[in-house]
Amino acid sequence: LKKTPAVDIALHDPVDAAAAHTSSESTSPKNEEIVGFDHIISELRKKLTKGSQQLDVISIVGMGGQGKTTLANKLFNDDSVKSRFDSRAQCCVSQEYSCRSILLAILRDLSCDDPATSELSTEDLRDKLQKVCKVKRYLILIDDIWEASVWEDLQPCFADVKNGSRIILTTRQVEVANSARISCEPFHLPMFKEDESWKLLKVKVFGKEGCSPDLEKVGLEIAKKCAGLPLSIVLVAGILAKEKNERYWRQVAKNLGSHIQSDARL
């Protein structure tokens, strides 16, 4: 008999440290399936495209694996949002913060890819970004900020000329979101409900195909064990997709420990 290996889910955000400081061209999952975020996307879309002409920061707060990056990327690449801004840029900060790398990534996305830019000092990069921001309505996504001091270091670069520019910020830390707040209240991402978890699991395992009644019962149990964390669901779905039979799924359900939720807080 084939022995099913123990399942151990190691949670992390979709963009890891190795991918930090990269631009929107390499980190945006433009066609990624979104489940359970429809009403949230609608609410945050309005904050990005309407309201005050003052520069504002839309902060998305949540634990690791909760879907902050997925949601932020979906907003960043939304057609109605894109059409609102003259230029857009995206970067990931992560725990290993490099101001110079972040500035270069943002400037590259803002079409400032002059080779000479990479030779500038950090202070000159700050000045250049500030000047660029003064002449364009910009949207900048800064993903995965861990410390309020990082935002305080970057914030002076983003000029406010009252033209409706916006910044999307994602973080696990409430104090980071509070530090960055201008007008918009930080948005705290809710956990998935059980039906939303099961819907996402089905989409990731079966696509448009149906799920048999035998698998649905154990599938609901597995979805519940994922503790409402979209990233956990996606990781587990990859395991379930290998063998779509009840015996295998029940072994997976058995091996899924209660550690999923506690690991997500790391």
SSE map:
Blueprint: H1 24-27, H2 38-49, E1 56-61, H3 68-76, H4 79-82, E2 87-92, H5 99-109, H6 122-135, E3 138-145, H7 148-154, E4 166-171, H8 174-180, E5 187-188, H9 194-206, H10 213-225, H11 230-240, H12 246-255, H13 259-264
Helix pairs in contact: 5-6, 7-8, 9-10, 9-11, 10-12
Can you describe this structure?
This protein is of the alpha/beta class. It has two domains: 37-188, 3-Layer(aba) Sandwich (Rossmann fold), CATH 3.40.50; 194-256. The chain contains 13 helices and five strands. It has helices spanning 24-27, 38-49, 68-76, 79-82, 99-109, 122-135, 148-154, 174-180, 194-206, 213-225, 230-240, 246-255, 259-264, and strands at residues 56-61, 87-92, 138-145, 166-171, 187-188. It has a five-stranded parallel sheet with strand order 2-3-4-1-5, with helices on both faces. Helix 7 (148-154) links the parallel strand 3 (138-145) and strand 4. Helix 7 (148-154) runs parallel beside helix 8 (174-180). The radius of gyration is 20 Å and the shape is elongated. The two termini are 37 Å apart. Mean pLDDT is 85; it is low at 7-31.
> What fraction of residues sit in β-strands?
5-15%
Count of runs of 4 or more consecutive helical residues: 13
| Overall pLDDT metric | 85
As for the CATH topology of the largest domain, it is Rossmann fold
Please estimate the helix content. Answer: 40-55%
Describe the sheet with the most strands. Answer: 5 strands, parallel
Q: Provide the structure class.
A: alpha/beta
SSE order in H/E notation? HHEHHEHHEHEHEHHHHH
CATH homologous superfamily descriptor of the largest domain: P-loop containing nucleotide triphosphate hydrolases
Radius of gyration: 20 Å
Task: Write down the domain tally.
Answer: 2
CATH architecture of the largest domain: 3-Layer(aba) Sandwich
